[in-house]
Specification:
The structure is a homodimer of 253-residue chains. With 253 residues, the first copy, chain A, is an alpha/beta fold. The first copy, chain A, folds into 2 domains: 164 residues, MoaB/Mog-like domain (Molybdenum Cofactor Biosythetic Enzyme, Chain A), CATH 3.40.980.10; 75 residues, ACT domain (Alpha-Beta Plaits), CATH 3.30.70. Helix content of chain A is 36%, strand content 27%. Chain A contains 9 helices and 12 strands. The first copy, chain A, has a 6-stranded mixed beta sheet, sandwiched between helices. In chain A, strand 7 and strand 8 form a beta hairpin. In chain A, helix 2 runs parallel beside helix 7 and helix 3 packs across helix 4. The first copy, chain A, is elongated. Strand 2 of chain A pairs antiparallel with strand 2 of chain B. Chains A, B: This is Competence/damage-inducible protein A. Chains A, B: It comes from Sphingomonas horti.
Chain lengths: 253, 253
């Protein structure tokens, strides 16, 4: 049944020198991946680029053509290093304009916070033809232009924007997953894992080893868009591990 | 002085369905970025792709041509979903061979751990012509092929491999940075930041806002490869913020 299924895909461009310098630990990849999955959309590719217009434009143009949706995070604030809107407008070949509703939102937000300034008005600039994505947290909206969704770098603000988008994007069936944990070196059950995956078309089994408190273990994650297929594969894997004398931990370790 | 400076660059391909599904929070981007900076090499681009040979090959071939060094993480274990070595060998057009020293290392490591098996021997397979990168933690080595460095997905193992590589790669001057924190909305000092950056060629100033305990603040990170240039820019920025009535926090908030 998986063969004929339409898979909706997305890509993400994470924009920011602070990620590439290692100063900031990115949290948007995992956050957006999890959210997309709930929408029935699969994150297929991520690129991280610096605050450089050419790099942003190249990544955006390569990925927006390949996927149903393209998300970006970072570079939409009020300071000189926030160049995402200009870079994307240039990439898609439209001018940057001030969005009147975004301007009104910012003016309202800043009434009690020192008033509007030129720097703050930068956050009302959008590629021409864009729609806004609301953000109750900081006044500055996210931006939708075609299949491009321009989000904040601060994870908590992007969370608000994702919340505002929830349920509005067309997707397919979410990718379901179940996890079985096992205190075993994955190399000891490698053949068993491969054979189990082969016996259940439409399922993928990922093996994720770890070392904790001096012990070796692994979590096996089974993924499928079909609940019955997933359940059968999960039960089979647990049975094969038990038959091999391995104790399993439902839900993972 | 920055104009004539040769900048050594690197890219990173993070390989793994678990990152794209959001199950696992990547830690290798920040870890490798920080390590590269100590070697005087700048991380310029990162791509995250799934466990799919075509996607891995495309990313590897695009990036190895553009940068001095290309790192990959993930997909070098013993299980069926570990396809990085095969995908990279295919991408660069060489066969996969068993590396005799890697085989000996694995045999030695597994003497007290149940002995060598076909699955474990998978971790001795390399693209023909490769050298090994040692890893004291798990017996399975990393792999160097030309300018490609193939590392583990488990961050602690990659840390060991980076340790083994430290000081062996040619690089330039490390990018230095200093941070000034300020309890201010970045939009209130946006012009000041831009003007300061402009006054100090060879420096970049990044502005990273946050919201903590109901308060708005920002950290300003000044970056340069030259210590004197960096120090002058840092002092100027602190002076301008103080002149504007803003208290600053050395080292960031």
């Amino acid at each position: 049944m998986a063969a004929a299924e339409r898979i909706w895909t997305a890509a993400l461009v994470v924009i920011g020198d602070e990620i590439l310098s290692g100063r900031t630990q990115d949290k948007n990849i995992a956050q957006i991946a999890l959210w997309l999955n709930l929408q029935g959309i699969r994150l297929v590719e991520v690129r991280v680029v610096g605050d450089a217009a050419v790099a942003i434009a190249e990544a955006v143009n390569a990925l927006r053509a390949r996927h149903d949706y393209l998300f970006t995070t970072g570079g939409i604030g009020p300071t000189h290093d926030d160049i995402t809107v200009d870079a994307i407008a240039e990439a898609v070949g439209v001018p940057v304009v001030v969005h009147s509703r975004a301007r009104a939102m910012l003016e309202r937000y800043y009434i009690s916070r020192g008033g509007i300034t030129d720097a703050r008005l930068r956050m009302a600039r959008v590629p021409e033809g864009a729609e806004l994505i609301e953000n109750r947290m900081s006044g500055a909206p996210g931006i939708r232009w075609g299949n491009i969704f321009i989000m904040a770098g601060v994870p908590a603000i992007t969370a608000m924007m994702l919340d505002a988008l929830s349920g509005t994007l067309e997707g397919g069936r979410p990718l379901l997953s179940e996890t079985i944990g096992c205190w075993v070196a994955e190399s000891e059950v490698a053949d068993l894992l491969g054979a189990t995956e082969k016996a259940h078309p439409g399922c993928q089994i990922g093996s994720y080893p770890f070392f904790r408190e001096g012990r070796t273990g692994a979590n096996f994650v089974i993924r499928s868009t079909d609940a019955a297929t997933l359940g059968a594969c999960r039960a089979d894997l647990a049975a094969r591990l038990m038959a091999a004398g391995r104790e399993t931990v439902d839900g993972g370790i």
